[in-house]
Write a structure and sequence with these properties.
By secondary structure, the chain is α+β, with helices and mostly antiparallel strands. The strands form 2 sheets. Strands 1-2 form a two-stranded antiparallel sheet. Strands 3-4 form a two-stranded antiparallel ribbon.
Length: about 120
């Protein structure tokens, strides 16, 4: 939950392996040569502990390489990258239904025993 909103990552592929992480770190270290070896080691640990998927890691690296405009990275610049869909509580989806949004526009999911809905087209 972030700022009172619930969300779910769109990345559902396999967790990045050590070789995936090493390739990503090598690519980033070439593009950002001012960063220390210690930085890359810590970033590797955070990528693994945050259970990045292979695709999320690739997308995060590609995003940083193509859009980052500063000379030095922060761990959060990589770790915060994700693509998500908003999750709605029962009261929120009920409000949508009452305002005329069709029931079939939503899909139901359960996370840790709690019910959520999301737009099917997200």
């Amino acid at each position: 939950m972030d700022n009172g909103k619930y969300s779910l990552s769109l990345y559902t592929d396999d967790i990045a392996q050590i070789t995936d992480i090493a390739i990503a770190i090598k690519k980033l270290s070439v593009c950002f040569p001012k960063m220390s070896v210690d930085f890359w080691n810590v970033l590797s640990e955070y990528i693994a502990s945050n259970k990045f998927t292979h695709k999320r890691l690739k997308d995060a690296v590609d995003h940083i390489i193509t859009t980052f405009q500063y000379s030095e990275l922060k761990i959060a610049d990589i770790i915060s990258y994700d693509k998500t869909k908003d999750l709605l509580t029962y009261n929120q989806v009920l409000e949508k239904w009452m305002s005329g949004v069709a029931y079939d526009k939503f899909e139901h999911t359960e996370i840790n025993g709690k019910n959520f809905w999301f737009y099917k087209n997200d």
